[in-house]
Amino acid sequence: MGIRNFIRFGVLGLCLIAGTGVVAQQQETAPDILVRNVTERVLDTLRRDKDIQNGNNEKLMRLVEAEILPHFNFNRMTQLAVGRDWRQASAAQQRQLSEEFRILLVRTYSNALLGYKDQRIEVKPLRLAQGETDVTVRTQIMQPGARPIQLDYSLEKGTGGWKVYDVVVAGVSLVTNYRETFAAEVRQGGIDGLVRSLQTKNRANVAAGSAK
Amino acid sequence: MMMSTGQVSLHLCAIGRFARSALTTGCLVGLLAACAGAPPNPKDPLEGFNRAMFSFNEGLDQVLIKPVAQGYDAAVPLPARIGVSNFFGNVGDLWVGINNLLQGKGGDAANDVGRLLINSTLGILGLFDVASEMGLERHDEDFGQTLGRWGVGEGAYVVLPLFGPRTVRDTGGLVVDVIADPVSSVDDVPTRNTLRALRIVSARAELLPSDKAIEQAALDKYAYIRDAYLQRRRNLIHDGSPPREKLDSGALGIESDPVVAEAMQAIGSFLLVSADADAAPASSDQPTE
After folding, report:
1. Using CA atoms, how far apart are residues A196 and A200, in angstroms rounded to an integer?
2. Total domain count for chain A?
3. Which of B75, B133, B49, B96 lies closest to B239, judged by CA?
4. Which range marks the domain in which residue A89 is found?
5. Which chain A residue's Cα is nearest to B7?
6. What confidence tier does B197 reach under pLDDT thresholds 50, 70, 90?
7. From the candidates B210, B236, B237, which should be mutated to test the interface with A, based on the most A CB atoms within 10 A?
8. pTM over 0.90
9. Which residue among A102, B203, B212, B249 is least enclosed by CB atoms within 10 Å?
10. Which residue of chain A has the CA closest to B11?
């Protein structure tokens, strides 16, 4: 288990949650049931879509953009990744940070998703207490010839229903893993410096993608 | 023989049992030189040295280990690669079981010994992981985790030459892991070196698909791998259920000077131990490629 799976299943995680759009009306659905329904639906799509399997990045990106974004709370994710420096950012800066961080996560992980093949996901049942608004849904990726990978989603219940604010792959949070890097960027160049670094990174990723 | 990148080390600690002989006094010099600055990250007081070592490991990966792993990946069919990976997993299972025992997890230890017996026989010398099919799950344990269970703090983060990311505690654990590694006790030097080389190449090949993703994800690859390593180790020590961290808390109250001193001491003695342990066969332990 390592970075590879950490990335790949993180992407998978992002995408699995993505299909939630269809079941958005079921806001009362328990988060674990939600994760399972979505998981099955998205796995199905991935297995069937030949374009995506053949490396159609455009299509994959569109899918991710359209399906995932409504079900992830990127503002909250960014806030967690930025940590205490979040408070010193203006509203405009916070918007910029969320936007750039979203682009980074979506692009990185949708590309990694292309490596996805014949994994199976088990969602562990969740005991949801009355009035609970913050839960962790635990799942396991079962793959042939390798040990299961732990993949946990943290979800928070807000006005728009349950939304994912963290994905933890084998104990590594995709969100807080950026915390030290972001803090170092802010120490060096302030909030604007961090925004610029994210923009630069995103541009580099686009350039690398189109060069291929 | 050597191994390099952070990803490799992150992947399986089991593969990081190499190259004792390569840990020469040259590393000590670099280590001392790196202690001059005052890095702001309390978890990483040796950042200057660590970054230098990280670059060194990355360079080595680019020129040697990655190309060999790519060749292996292209030339050897998947079932054979899985067999190789299973074989080394099986070789490590006894030590995994012993560590579970040392951590007071008798049930898990019995599971691991059962795996070893089943896979060594039914699984034809470990080439097939029959035990997993039978529901005996493979565990990930090493002596660094055992020390963590016993309450030893992780200490500073260090990037070891060739071995990659560790903490001071995990460096101590690594020494014991290397001594306990069955491959280390293979007497025939060419066989031992071949096994070591194959284990590294196999582990590196498994990581090839992740290279691009990491490049894309990380603003700062060094820090990204460091923080993933630290999170991952914490998770492993608690067998997947670490105490939940307060995500919003900002300050990390770790004193830095004693940690540096402790780190220096531990690393210094690690290098000496390694040099000692390998004094005799050192000259014949060269890379085989």
Report:
1. 6
2. 1
3. B96
4. 3-211
5. A3
6. very high
7. B210
8. no
9. B249
10. A2
